[in-house]
Amino acid sequence: MTTKTLLIGDIGGTNARFALARDDEPGFHDALTLKCADYASGDDAIQDYLSQVSAGSPDVVCLAAAGPVIDGTVRMTNNHWTLSTADITDDFRPDAVRLMNDFAAIAYSIPWLADSDHESIGLPKSDRLPDHDFTVAIVGPGTGLGTAGLCRRGDTLFPIVGEGGHIGFAPKSQVQLEILTALRDKFDRVSIERLVSGAGLENIYWALNLLYGEKRTQLSAREIFAHSIDGSDPRAVDSTHMFFEILGQVAGDLALTLGAEDGVYIAGGIAKRYPEMMHNSGFRNAFENKGRHRALMERIPTQLITHDEPGLLGVAYCALELSASS
Question: At what angle do helices 42-52 and 85-92 cross, to 10 degrees?
Fold first, then answer.
């Protein structure tokens, strides 16, 4: 039997990560990261990737992208590409094409993560997902804030994807209320993404300096984390503590909304870069602090995804399923 070429990709605003999926189990090889700005279109980047890894025309193309899929098309929010199943079919003539949201791809990766691909944040420690039905949630702060859920019913996986990062921010303390008030003067509407993302950390730092009546040079998210780690800026320390506390609140809200009693998984680059800070933060207490449902929340494990490319792993699973049905 001739081996099929299964092209997969995870495309964001800055980088496009491509690989070839295995045709026997979820997994991938020959992964390359390309800069989106270097290519006029996604199809040009695909062609260059195939050339670099000496692969032929793909039999299956399965791509995740940071944006909603509408009528088989994704118009990227943070770069100039537009991806469409029609254009990919015309240019590469695969047997099957699928586009999906990037957090749907991360959701699909959850059952295939090895024990070494995630670590527990607080108690309880997580066991493996049950062999029968389960429901989990995923939240990931990065450039923005992504959210998703994953259910298994029988032998079928169902991702639940929306724009949870744009839910309105609900403060849980007087300081958070004052931050919200400050940010309302800056934005028409304060969503949780305005606080739980790279730009969100910068907003928290700006607001805290305003509340304390201090005039500091505005820092980037990376600089805020650096000053928090070395203790050189007390407002940076306060900002990172507040960031992880609010992330815990949001993760708990998502668990209650989706009924994700089998776990909440933290994705995105920020938490993965600063795991020790997250372990030592108020994340878990904020996650559990749900009033009458605290006892329920105490039973739900929270996991930090440490896998390098969970999006590609999830897309690899989908490509394998697509290949089997085409």
Answer: 40
